[in-house]
Amino acid sequence: DAADARARLHRRACAYLLSADDEPALWRRRFGAQGARYRASARPVGRPHSYDYLIAALAGLQAAGAIPCAPDPGDALFAWSALHGAATLRAGRVEGMRLPMPVLAESIVARVIRALGATPSKEDNPP
């Protein structure tokens, strides 16, 4: 149901934030200037990565009726950008990002769901 789908996305968000909190040096290595080379060598061939799980969690929201339309690639990029940005700011120890992780994750999840549930206007879809 919708509550389960939302809880899955929340758990994924917490796990993503936790990885940045627990290993900030590794986080910077994975997503810094040399990140592409590191990610290519660190992930076994054929294994999904965190972005695949995010896409599945977003699709689960739609299947459960939590959002009205199937998420498109732009929706997935939006959700990942919000979560990844927060994780990166936390890893960098940026002031104001030290909310308790479950609170921050829920805030991001709520905003993503709200954004994906809104009827887009022309201003939301620039050419």
Written overview of the protein:
This protein is mainly alpha-helical and 127 residues long. It is 69% helix and 0% strand. The chain has helices at 2-22, 24-31, 35-42, 50-63, 73-91, 101-117. Helix 1 crosses helix 2 (24-31), helix 2 (24-31) crosses helix 3 (35-42) and helix 5 runs antiparallel to helix 6. Residues 119-127 have low confidence and may be disordered.
Shape: globular
Poorly predicted sequence stretches spanning 5 or more consecutive residues: 119-127
Instruction: Name the helicity range.
Output: 55-70%
- Class inferred from helices and paired strands: mainly alpha
* Number of DSSP strand runs: 0
Percent strand: under 5%
- What's the average pLDDT? 82
Q: Major sheet, described briefly?
A: none
Radius of gyration: 15 Å
Distance between the termini: 35 Å
Summarize the helix and strand pattern as letters.
HHHHHH
